[in-house]
TrEMBL record:
Originating organism: Streptomyces malaysiensis
Protein name: L,D-TPase catalytic domain-containing protein
InterPro entries: LD_TPept_cat_dom
Pfam families (alphabetical): YkuD (PF03734)
Molecular function via GO: transferase activity
Residue ranges occupied by any L,D-TPase catalytic domain in the UniProt entry: 53-172
Residue ranges the record marks as coiled coil: none
Length: 181
């Protein structure tokens, strides 16, 4: 984890092959770390992986910076660079038949195989397209994702308002056993 990080979102999956997680934001107060509330979350349909590949339906395990945000809706008051665009639209249904509409109303780009400092919509993939990309924190649609992590709408808005680029926000994500290593 980067030494300068003072905001750490920890997303812990139930097990390596499960699409259900919990998310807790930890903030360094100067003397110690303070934990926020535990929030329910979803990750990819097939769980987690140490070597993400495009289309594997697994979320990448690791520590990633959180530098850029965006969405279909107006900026809710984030300090992260925010790209509002109609291109953050998604339709259809998820793996459990749930509607996907509104899932990308707010997103935070997870800096896995992307160029920080660009819109979450930027498709530049420094590790190559076969390693996937477009891994975001986004609004939960009630089911597993293709590789992202999703949180409830209120939790996403709160996270967007809380994250501060001057505090070096990161996400630490993976199944519990992998995160214990």
């Amino acid at each position: 984890m980067p030494r300068r990080s003072r905001q750490v979102l920890v997303v812990t999956g139930r097990d390596r092959n499960a699409p259900v997680s919990t998310a807790v934001l930890y903030e360094h107060t100067g003397a110690d770390w303070r934990a926020g509330p535990s929030r329910p979350a979803h990750n990819a349909l097939s769980g987690w992986t140490d070597h993400h590949r495009e289309g594997d339906l697994r979320s990448p395990i690791g520590v990633y910076t959180l530098t850029d945000a965006g969405g279909r809706l107006p900026d809710p008051g984030t300090r992260l660079p925010y790209d509002r665009s109609a291109d953050f639209s998604v339709g259809g249904t998820g793996f459990a038949g749930e509607p996907l509409a509104g899932s990308f109303d707010y997103v935070i780009a997870i800096d896995y195989n992307r160029r920080p400092g660009t819109s979450p919509l930027d498709r530049t993939r420094p590790l190559g397209p076969e390693r996937g990309g477009g891994i975001w924190l986004h609004i939960d649609h009630g089911g597993p994702t293709r590789g992202c992590v999703s949180l409830g709408a209120d939790a996403m808005k709160e996270l967007l308002r809380t994250l501060d680029p001057d505090r070096g926000p990161v996400v630490v994500m993976g199944d519990a056993a992998s995160l214990e290593r």
